[in-house]
Specification:
Length: 233
């Protein structure tokens, strides 16, 4: 098979998520053409996907060594550093990238920060699904450190904290989510549920009523209100 054919086949496999099949082909390419930054980046993504953060970071570093302006590789390296607990290094990666793209940056590009935050949010959701609340909390906090204005992240962090019985710690996150987006119904619903769990039925009723005012189709709030009304009767 010709090198170009190998490359095209590797990209096809990678793009369809067939990482185990794509990896040996990509390694074959960099063994003969080590200056392909995009191939190093893809090998880094594959390594990251299987949890080999150290290996992934080396591939992303190589991609950036070959192309310092490679924003996607910078993003991937920062995410990897965050997963390794190397938050300062992650920030430094984007500071350098920002200096190249924008000579006088004042902060990380909000788009980039949002992308990183979203990756941590997605990982946190997986942990939350399997009741791994400590791990979920860690990922949600990472997301908020990167980009603090996502109401869904604050809400999920509150849920994970409440799952551990930390209701008083959870409530401010639901309140913050409401501040960030008053139309984000889940924050109102979860805040009301937290009040109810503390025995504050009046506050719970108020939150769920307001939730329905904001979004009349919010079935969860409607269901809780009906249950609460039956309980009172």
């Amino acid at each position: 098979m010709e090198p170009q054919d190998i490359y095209e086949r590797a990209i096809e496999l990678f793009d369809t998520g067939k990482y185990p099949e794509a990896e040996p082909l990509l390694k074959n390419i960099v063994s003969t053409h080590p200056h392909y930054a995009d191939v190093h980046n893809k090998l880094g993504i594959i390594a990251h996907h299987r949890g080999d953060f150290k290996g992934a970071s080396e591939y992303f570093k190589k991609a950036l060594e070959l192309n310092p302006n490679y924003t996607e590789a910078s993003l991937n390296l920062a995410i990897t550093f965050n997963n390794m607990g190397e938050f300062k290094k992650g920030q430094e990666v984007f500071s350098r990238a920002a200096q190249i793209a924008h000579p006088t940056p004042t902060a990380m590009d909000p788009f980039i920060a949002g992308k990183i935050a979203n990756e941590h949010y997605k990982v946190g959701n997986i942990y939350l699904e399997f009741a791994m609340n400590d791990e979920a909390i860690e990922e949600y906090r990472k997301a908020i450190r990167m980009f603090s204005r996502l109401p869904d992240v604050h809400t999920k962090l509150g849920i994970a904290l409440r799952n551990k019985g930390l209701i008083d710690e959870a409530i401010p996150y639901f309140v913050k989510a409401k501040e960030l987006n008053k139309h984000y119904g889940p924050a109102w619903v979860q805040l009301g549920l937290s009040y109810y769990m503390k025995g504050l039925t009046g506050l719970a009723f108020e939150e769920w009523e307001k939730a329905l005012e904001q979004n009349p189709n919010l079935k969860e709030a409607d269901a809780y209100l009906k249950l609460l009304k039956k309980e009172v009767k």
